[in-house]
Design goal:
The chain is α/β, with parallel strands linked by helices and 259 residues long. It is built from 10 helices and 8 strands. It has an 8-stranded mixed beta sheet. The two termini are 13 Å apart. 39% of the residues are buried.
Length: 259
């Protein structure tokens, strides 16, 4: 099973207690969050801390077909299904769940109400205010699909260490309050350049240290990990990062269950 994810965009596994979900592509984080809410393992209006080379804050996730109507596990898995964009073959559906729009999909379903973005990505966060100010047909359509009293809080850090310096266990617990807290980690956050051909990986001792500090910060209700091999710089780089992250978590990938 160790390298099955290399050629399968829908590869995904979880621990027996369904607290840790690992997936090749990040769109499946949406499904993990929604299934956890369905099973009452997390509460509505959760806090997500999103560590990623990219923001993944594209708002057209709100327009994914049957997004708000999905009620069952089967419904959620169906609309979350990934697509291999490297083949050039796309579904005829207008709006698909993608690796960059899944956060807004969960915001629209009120599964998430606040996102702390930790990303070096060059752009600023796309805000609800910007959506309201835009006068395009697409922005109006997105806004029309948002639930009444839609709430979206967000905060931004550029580096993992910046986030870790901003919070200790006590202050982060206060930040979470009575909400559920989700640690969402994309391994490409450890590629320090925006380059998929000549990546510069964070030194592995630093990767292990940062992951350990994140795990010790809070007893996370749910952890989602995207491998994103292309953006790590390739399969070998992604495998190296994954092995080091799982070593800190004391997880053997061969012990995990497909879902």
């Amino acid at each position: 099973m160790n390298n099955e994810w290399e050629n399968d965009v829908n590869w995904k596994v979880h621990t027996d207690n369904k607290k840790v979900y690992i997936m090749r592509d990040h769109n499946w984080a949406f499904a993990a969050w929604e299934l956890a809410k369905l099973d009452e393992r997390i509460n509505e209006q959760s806090l997500v801390v999103h560590f990623d080379a990219h923001l993944d804050d594209v708002p057209d996730g709100v327009l994914v077909k049957n997004l708000l109507e999905a009620k069952t596990e089967s419904d959620i898995l169906s609309l979350s299904k990934g697509h291999d964009y490297t083949t050039g073959s796309l579904s005829s559906e207008s709006y698909l769940m993608r690796i960059d729009n899944f956060i807004w999909a969960s915001l629209a379903r009120k599964t998430v109400e606040e996102v702390i973005y930790v990303s070096r990505y060059r752009d600023d966060i796309f805000t609800l205010e910007e959506l309201r100010e835009e006068e395009t047909q697409l922005s109006k359509l997105i806004h029309s699909k948002l639930p009444i009293n839609f709430n979206y809080k967000h905060q931004r850090f550029r580096e993992i260490d910046d986030f870790l310096h901003a919070f200790d266990q006590d202050s982060f617990s206060k930040k979470v309050g009575n909400r559920s807290a989700i640690l969402d980690l994309d391994l490409d956050v450890f590629n320090e350049v925006d380059d998929t051909i000549e990546p510069v990986l964070t030194p592995l001792f630093q990767v292990r240290d940062q992951v350990e500090r994140l795990l010790n910060l809070y007893p996370w209700d749910l952890i989602t990990i995207a491998i994103s091999p292309i953006y790590c710089g390739g399969h070998s780089e992604a495998e190296l990062l994954l092995d080091n992250v799982l070593k800190v978590m004391n997880i053997e990938i061969t012990d995990l269950s497909k879902w």
